[in-house]
């Protein structure tokens, strides 16, 4: 079976993309025959045929949690336990036998063709649409209006709650406190965060924006979004229910 402490693999399919993984300037895996894998709540990942992995750079370590693991060493860099494969797989996932997966954050770079992937591979069955709207959006924290706009960009993302991105000029700049936090989204780019100070109370990292968004999300440039899990959002005068806060399963990734 797949690892006892992780959800079962849901499905996989062959990817038509040329995928490479790099560590310390060395190509660790290079394949035109990867499998794109969906596993439980985790983001999509690439698994590589064993013959497309540079095993000369891998050293086996102790198996753990139903996985065989390898350390990867390139020069003076060691990525401990960063390559792995399940010890056993159910019959319905036999196509993944003899495939190697890598811990995403332990690698320096991932590429599809000649483009760097950030965060994780994009799900080919998910859409992210940035749509101009004239809905009236009001953001409040502890009863104080911190943003008010009738020209939001609405992000419709498959399987996700709508997000309202407001022009920076429609946000009260005097309540914003720049944060050190950043995160990445494979669809939008690298996000910068702000805390909001209202009545002497600091609400940490409740807003974010994409200063330099990826080309397909360019329309989000100059806009800011608030976590509706932590603020009050009204749309055309109707207060929206707060959504349940989600704990990220991948560090520094936002959707």
Structure description:
With 255 residues, the chain is an all-beta fold. It has two domains: 9-116, Metal Binding Protein, Guanine Nucleotide Exchange Factor, Chain A; 128-239, Domain of unknown function (DUF427) (Metal Binding Protein, Guanine Nucleotide Exchange Factor, Chain A, Beta Complex), CATH 2.170.150. It has strands at residues 9-14, 19-23, 26-31, 35-39, 45-49, 58-64, 67-74, 77-86, 99-102, 109-112, 115-116, 128-132, 137-141, 144-149, 153-157, 163-167, 176-185, 189-198, 201-209, 223-226, 232-235, 238-239. The protein has a seven-stranded antiparallel sheet with strand order 1-4-5-9-8-7-6, with no helix packed on it. A hairpin with a 2-residue loop joins strand 21 (232-235) and strand 22 (238-239). It is elongated. Residues 1-7 and 247-251 have low confidence and may be disordered.
Radius of gyration from CA coordinates: 21 Å
Give the helix/strand class. Answer: mainly beta
**Integer count of domains:** 2
CATH class of the largest domain, anyone? Mainly Beta
Architecture per CATH nomenclature, i.e. the level-2 architecture of the largest domain: Beta Complex
Instruction: Estimate the mean pLDDT confidence.
Output: 91
Q: How would you spell out the order of helices and strands?
A: EEEEEEEEEEEEEEEEEEEEEE
Main sheet: strands, sense, barrel: 7 strands, antiparallel
**Helical content band:** under 10%
Strand content: over 45%
Number of strands: 22
Strand order of the largest sheet: 1-4-5-9-8-7-6
Write the CATH fold name of the largest domain. Metal Binding Protein, Guanine Nucleotide Exchange Factor, Chain A
């Amino acid at each position: 079976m797949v690892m006892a402490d992780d959800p079962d693999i849901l499905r996989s399919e062959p990817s038509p993309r040329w995928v490479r993984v790099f560590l310390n300037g060395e190509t660790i895996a290079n394949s035109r025959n990867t499998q794109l894998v969906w596993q439980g709540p985790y983001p999509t990942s690439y698994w590589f045929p064993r013959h497309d992995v540079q095993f000369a750079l891998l050293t086996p370590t102790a198996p753990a949690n139903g996985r065989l693991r390898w350390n990867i060493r390139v020069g003076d860099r060691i990525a401990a336990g960063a390559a792995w494969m399940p010890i056993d797989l159910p019959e319905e996932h036999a196509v993944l036998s003899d495939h190697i997966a890598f811990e995403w954050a332990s690698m320096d770079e991932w590429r599809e063709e000649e483009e760097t992937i950030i965060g994780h591979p994009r799900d080919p069955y998910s859409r992210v649409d940035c749509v101009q709207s004239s809905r009236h959006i009001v953001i409040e924290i502890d009863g104080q209006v911190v943003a008010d706009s009738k020209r939001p960009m609405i992000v419709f993302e498959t399987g996700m709650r709508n997000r309202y991105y407001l022009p920076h000029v429609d946000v009260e700049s005097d309540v914003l406190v720049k944060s050190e936090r950043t995160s990445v989204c494979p669809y939008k780019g690298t996000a910068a965060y702000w805390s909001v100070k209202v009545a002497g109370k600091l609400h940490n990292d409740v807003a974010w924006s994409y200063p330099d968004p990826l080309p397909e999300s360019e329309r989000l440039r100059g806009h800011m979004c608030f976590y509706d899990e932590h603020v009050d959002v009204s749309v055309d005068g109707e207060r929206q229910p707060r959504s349940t806060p989600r704990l990220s399963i991948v560090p520094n990734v936002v959707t």
